């Protein structure tokens, strides 16, 4: 019972960890590059959600302080951190998507197994070319 | 008289601003972009050296950004770990000089100004990471050097580069998130982001969430540092990148992961019960990485892949030293981080010069090149021997100290690991030297090759000389990092 009560009072943290693991699972196991980036985005969201909730204070007002406001206020610092984190996440995601476009242009696929096939085919072509040049 | 500490933000801001301006100013003038980047890196190096002299002269100092004092404001500080900014700035400077002719062929003309911008931004991120005293800025600067590194890998023309960069990005971004998550946990526990403040608070806190934060930070930085078994992104990324970028990545960016681990140890220095199991684990992972990396390097045909696997091996050595936690092993590991940076950038630049002149990158294809490119081949041969740890060259100091530390800590088997890995490194070194000097050319490109331009062989030669000079300067370097090793771990045996 005690464990259940503790878990319930930290339900936001548990959800964040569950989301993080879900994203990590997708990132590690999916063979599709776009899905991997989506997994990464889920991980990012979970971390942002976690950090934002650490700023929460029970009964706290938004930290817009006017003269005479009694408080308590929610901590504004985590919001600033998450804002920076989102900027980083956007740039990482856009770079990843551009790289995926280039991978698709060069290998004709965004599936890792198909890319591996075309890499293997490229290797054999290169080897036969080498044998050819050794002949002449 | 300007306060010395004002130079600390300049160390990071100068390359960041200089890098951001590069594409605006020199989009259509790649030669001028190179000149600009070299100038910015030179000034940054001078600032870094001035700060180092100040540090040696009168100890560490810190700077409060915007005048807000720690622990509420953002703190920048200079300590012995931050002094890595000196080799970082100088090595980036030499890589930029080397890039002048290399990049013209290896990178699309429309991307050249962005290439220089990214290298400068990478340096800014590294320097900021080294001197920050604040956990969140540690994350931000880490992302600056990481994201620029992903993009730099992708500047190479080979089709494989985009795939290697993407692999590097996915692993790197996931590890960054682990770090950010752990920073969030530390903030939730302690209510502060200042490193020293948080360290003091963590020493008194309960082990459960602190252990979670420690595991997250250690894993995140271990991925950045390419510790076995999370090293698998490294060989492809370092081999596919343009050679000067490989030099920067192998010499500096993976070392930033090591610095991250050092900062983590500093943060949890008061929580010894949590650190001990981690340090034990790190020793054995390091040993596996040292052996596995050296053996994988031995079987590579591609010279850059060989060098990349050798980086995995050397990161293994450094982690053995950090994990042993004796005074000589830790200072040996810190010195080896610098020495390996110099040696490995010399090797990657020399390999780049050879690839630039011949278009070949298989070791067997490069045979006979020693006569054709005497300076470059000499640099490569000399630094390969330095890499194996032969005295009195730079690879020796760190490995010797780490071996001493292993004996002190009662792990003679680790000495065997170090010796075996050293022999394997010597074996692939001899394989390359044999191919370069004692075999006749088999390829037309080698037989007709000539020495690389001075902008290429001069950096290689300077790094080669440095790899001897740093070996001779082993004792002062160990004495310099000694106090830092003590203060990071508390007290060391």
What report would you give on this structure?
- The complex is a heterodimer of chains A (136) and B (493).
- Chain A is built from five helices and no strands.
- In chain A, helix 2 (11-29) runs antiparallel to helix 3 and helix 3 (33-54) packs antiparallel against helix 4.
- Chain A has 136 residues and is an all-alpha fold.
- With 493 residues, chain B is mainly α.
- Chain B has a domain at 275-493.
- Chain B has helices at residues 7-26, 30-58, 85-106, 112-131, 135-154, 159-190, 195-203, 207-225, 234-240, 243-267, 272-298, 303-324, 327-358, 369-372, 374-387, 394-408, 412-438, 444-447, 454-472, 474-489; strands at residues 61-65, 74-78.
- In chain B, helix 3 runs antiparallel to helix 19 and helix 11 runs parallel beside helix 17 (412-438).
- The longest helix of chain B has 32 residues, at 159-190.
Strand content of chain A: under 5%
CATH architecture of chain A: Orthogonal Bundle
Helical segment tally of chain B? 20
Provide the helix percentage of chain B: over 70%
In DSSP terms (H or I, runs of 4 or more residues), the helix count of chain A works out at 5
């Amino acid at each position: 019972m005690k464990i259940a009560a503790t878990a319930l009072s930290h339900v936001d943290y548990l959800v964040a960890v569950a989301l993080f693991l879900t994203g990590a699972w997708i990132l590690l196991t999916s063979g599709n590059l776009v899905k991997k980036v989506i997994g990464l985005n889920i991980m990012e969201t979970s971390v942002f959600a976690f950090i934002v909730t650490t700023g929460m204070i029970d009964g706290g007002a938004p930290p817009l302080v006017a003269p005479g406001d009694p408080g308590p206020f929610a901590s504004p610092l985590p919001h600033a951190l998450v804002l920076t984190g989102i900027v980083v996440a956007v740039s990482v995601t856009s770079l990843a998507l551009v790289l995926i476009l280039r991978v698709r242009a060069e290998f004709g696929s965004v599936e890792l197994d198909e890319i591996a096939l075309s890499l293997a085919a490229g290797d054999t072509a290169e080897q036969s070319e080498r044998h050819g040049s050794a002949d002449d | 008289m300007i306060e010395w500490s004002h130079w600390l933000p300049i160390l990071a801001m100068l390359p960041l601003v200089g890098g951001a301006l590069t594409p605006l100013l020199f989009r259509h003038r790649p030669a001028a972009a190179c000149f600009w980047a070299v100038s910015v890196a030179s000034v940054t190096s001078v600032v870094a050296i001035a700060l180092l002299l100040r540090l040696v002269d009168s100890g560490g100092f810190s700077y409060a950004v915007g005048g807000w004092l720690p622990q509420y404001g953002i703190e920048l500080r200079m300590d012995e770990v931050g002094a890595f900014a000196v080799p970082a700035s100088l090595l980036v400077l030499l890589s930029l000089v080397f890039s002048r002719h290399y990049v013209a062929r290896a990178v699309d003309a429309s991307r050249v100004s962005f290439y220089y911008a990214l290298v400068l931004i990478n340096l800014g991120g590294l320097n900021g990471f080294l001197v920050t005293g604040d956990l969140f800025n540690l994350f931000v600067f880490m992302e600056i050097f990481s994201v620029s590194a992903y993009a730099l890998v992708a500047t190479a023309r080979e089709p494989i580069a985009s795939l290697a960069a993407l692999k590097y990005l996915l692993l790197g971004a996931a590890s960054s998130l682990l770090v950010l998550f752990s920073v969030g946990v530390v903030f939730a526990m302690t209510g502060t982001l200042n490193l020293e403040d948080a360290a003091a608070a963590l020493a008194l806190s309960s082990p459960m969430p602190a252990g979670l934060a420690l595991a997250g930070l250690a894993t995140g930085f271990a991925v950045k540092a390419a510790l076995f078994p999370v090293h698998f992104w490294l060989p492809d990324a370092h081999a596919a990148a343009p050679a000067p970028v490989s030099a920067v990545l192998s010499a500096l960016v993976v070392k930033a992961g090591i610095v991250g681990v050092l900062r983590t140890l500093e943060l949890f220095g008061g929580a010894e019960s949590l650190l001990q199991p981690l340090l034990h684990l790190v020793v054995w992972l390091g040993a596996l990485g040292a052996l596995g990396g050296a053996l994988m390097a031995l079987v590579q045909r591609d010279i850059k892949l060989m060098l990349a696997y050798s980086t995995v091996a050397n990161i293994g050595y450094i982690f053995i030293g950090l994990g042993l936690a004796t005074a000589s092993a830790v200072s040996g590991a810190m010195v080896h981080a610098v020495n390996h940076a110099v040696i490995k950038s010399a090797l990657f630049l020399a390999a780049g010069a050879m690839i630039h002149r011949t278009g070949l990158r298989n070791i067997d294809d490069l045979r006979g090149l020693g006569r054709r490119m005497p300076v470059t081949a000499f640099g490569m041969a000399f630094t390969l021997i330095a890499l194996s740890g032969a005295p009195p060259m730079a690879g020796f100091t760190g490995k010797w100290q780490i071996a001493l530390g292993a004996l002190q800590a009662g792990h003679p088997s680790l000495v065997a690991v170090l010796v075996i890995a050293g022999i394997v490194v010597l074996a692939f070194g001899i394989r390359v030297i044999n191919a370069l000097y004692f075999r006749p050319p088999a390829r037309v490109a080698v037989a007709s090759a000539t020495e690389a331009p001075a902008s290429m062989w001069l950096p290689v030669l300077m790094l080669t000389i440095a790899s001897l000079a740093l070996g001779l300067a082993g004792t002062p370097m160990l004495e310099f990092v000694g106090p830092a090793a003590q203060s990071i771990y508390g007290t060391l045996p």
